[in-house]
Design a protein that fits this description.
Oligomer: single chain
Protein name: Cold-regulated protein
Organism: Papaver nudicaule (Iceland poppy)
Strand order of the largest sheet: 1-2
Keywords: Membrane, Transmembrane, Transmembrane helix
Order of helices and strands: EEHH
Helix content: 55-70%
Length: about 70
Amino acid sequence: MVGCVECGTRRNPCRCRVFGPTLGCVAFCVAAVVEWPIGAFVYIFKHVKGKRIMGHPARSVYPKVSNCIPI
């Protein structure tokens, strides 16, 4: 079984999360496949905007999806 596990959290009684981080990782990968090539192209012309686009999956997508599911 492949998945992400986050232990030591106080968000649920068993203090371990599997589904949220795993779905967050999947969403991160999907967003990265789309956004990284676009960000690399934009980086050629506008460095700051390109960095922001390439960092979006890690900064925004993964935490939002991972925190939606408490188990």
